[in-house]
């Protein structure tokens, strides 16, 4: 390798002096300095990250500070007009372990001789030394934290978190929009609960309304939340999402039947992707409809309960309504966890079938209970009404109107009593989507 030592290089002619050629680099040796070129307000970035501890910054350099292992202190160089230093959050961890920037001697940062703390995730900061009055002034400060995301990202509904999982809850129609798919293919399979609207109950002397169909999926082994007995563990009935929008339908509760004894309305289905849950089955004096869970049989003996899990899916989405045994033994509507039953004695309304509990939203909640039957319209007295199953169903009436089910539980309405007694309205449904986001 040849070596030339000179004190000065000057142009031979013209106004341009060229160092190096196309495709070559002109390098200053380690420790060498340059003068006369000036700076343009930028720094030369040192791409070897600084880690835990204290270091001395050099004017003209930018530093990537990695605080994932602990805090860092950066000592600024002695201030001179035009000196410039930049710092950037290497790992997005300054909010956990901060960076302390300390001025040299009596130098100031923003007119004060004191250290400053950088504690914002993804922050990058540039300081320029202006004069002895203000010292170092922050000329650029970015907190955009632009980073690739290897996880599933989505919008829609009400979003909450439980550990490493995000939960989107829809109480009405909406859109679940996936804007970024996970780099881990298995994590694009989401957990879900799709709950249809519960049925209204009949009036006069009718069984309870059936609960809305309850369908649930869980992405095991990635997510092992405590699910209902009806859960389908992946890959059974799995929903795998991609970058697109998914329409969400949340079924309303069916209307109660009037005191004429006419049939009440079924609940409305709820949907997410390929999962459809059927609305609960309605009830009347002498008729009960099928649905997610079936309506309960009324006073016209014997009135069979409506079939649950209609149309059939596996795991089941609900249960049958109870069969009215005699004119004095009305039956409750089916629930997601149990069938509706007739009254235990010869003078009463039967209870609705129980719903099921799941912790898909982060804590256990029971939904999809069947509605209770009303008391019968014939002696002996006193006759008892039927209570709802656990999970938001309505109680049957001892007089007048049956109780409405609780909204967004998919519960069945309670049966009404007497010619003026209408059945209770069914509870609206709910859709919940859950996935790993970190």
Number of helices, where a helix is a run of at least 4 consecutive DSSP H or I residues: 0
Head-to-tail CA distance between termini: 54 Å
Rough outline: elongated
The whole-number mean of residue pLDDT values reads: 91
How many discrete structural domains?
2
Helical residue percent band: under 10%
Count the strands? 27
* Rg calculated over all Cα atoms: 35 Å
Q: What structural class is derived from the secondary structure elements? A: mainly beta
Task: Please provide a written account of the structure.
This protein has no helices and 27 strands. The protein is mostly beta strands and 438 residues long. It has 2 domains: 44-142, gp9 (Jelly Rolls); 149-438, no CATH class. The strands form 7 sheets. Strands 11, 12, 14, 16, 17, 18 and 27 form a 7-stranded mixed beta sheet that branches. It is elongated, with a radius of gyration of 35 Å. The protein starts with 43 loop residues before the first strand and ends with a strand.
Q: What's this entry about, in short?
A:
The chain has 438 residues and is an all-beta fold.
């Amino acid at each position: 390798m040849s070596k030339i030592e000179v004190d000065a290089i000057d142009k031979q002619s013209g106004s341009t002096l060229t160092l190096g050629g196309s495709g070559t680099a002109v390098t200053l040796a380690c420790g060498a300095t340059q003068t006369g070129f000036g700076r343009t307000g930028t720094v030369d970035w040192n791409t070897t990250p600084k880690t835990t501890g204290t270091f001395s910054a050099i004017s003209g350099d930018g530093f990537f500070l990695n605080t994932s292992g602990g805090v860092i202190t950066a000592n600024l160089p002695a201030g001179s007009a035009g000196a410039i230093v930049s710092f950037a959050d290497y790992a997005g961890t300054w909010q956990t372990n901060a960076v302390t920037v300390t001025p040299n001697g009596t130098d100031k940062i923003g007119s004060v001789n004191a250290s400053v703390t950088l504690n914002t995730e993804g922050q990058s900061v540039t300081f320029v030394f202006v004069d002895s009055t203000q010292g170092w002034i922050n000329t650029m400060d970015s907190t955009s934290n632009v980073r690739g995301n290897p996880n599933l990202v989505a919008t829609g509904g009400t979003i909450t978190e439980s550990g490493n999982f995000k939960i989107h809850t829809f109480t009405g129609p909406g859109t679940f929009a996936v804007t970024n798919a996970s780099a881990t293919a298995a994590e694009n399979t989401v957990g879900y609960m799709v709950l249809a609207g519960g049925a209204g109950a009949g009036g006069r002397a009718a069984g309870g309304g059936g609960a809305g169909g309850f369908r649930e999926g869980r992405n095991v082994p990635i997510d092992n939340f405590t699910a209902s007995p009806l859960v389908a563990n992946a890959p059974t009935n799995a929903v795998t999402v991609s970058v697109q929008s998914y329409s969400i339908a949340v079924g309303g509760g069916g209307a109660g039947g009037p005191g004429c004894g006419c049939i009440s309305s079924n609940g409305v289905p709820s949907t997410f992707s390929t999962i459809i849950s059927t609305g609960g089955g309605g009830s009347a004096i002498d008729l009960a409809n099928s649905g997610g869970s079936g309506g309960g049989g009324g006073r016209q003996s014997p009135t069979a309960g409506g079939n649950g899990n209609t149309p059939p899916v596996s795991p089941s989405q609900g249960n049958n309504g109870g069969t009215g045994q005699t004119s004095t033994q009305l039956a409750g509507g089916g629930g997601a966890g149990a069938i509706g039953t007739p009254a235990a004695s010869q003078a009463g309304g039967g209870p609705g079938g129980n719903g099921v509990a799941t912790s898909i939203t982060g804590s256990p909640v029971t939904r999809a209970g069947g509605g209770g039957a009303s008391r019968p319209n014939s002696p002996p007295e006193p006759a008892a009404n039927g209570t709802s199953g656990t999970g938001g169903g309505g109680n049957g009436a001892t007089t007048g109107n049956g109780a409405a089910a609780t909204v967004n539980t998919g519960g069945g309405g309670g049966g009404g009593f007497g010619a003026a007694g209408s059945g209770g309205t069914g509870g609206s449904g709910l859709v919940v989507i859950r996935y790993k986001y970190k």
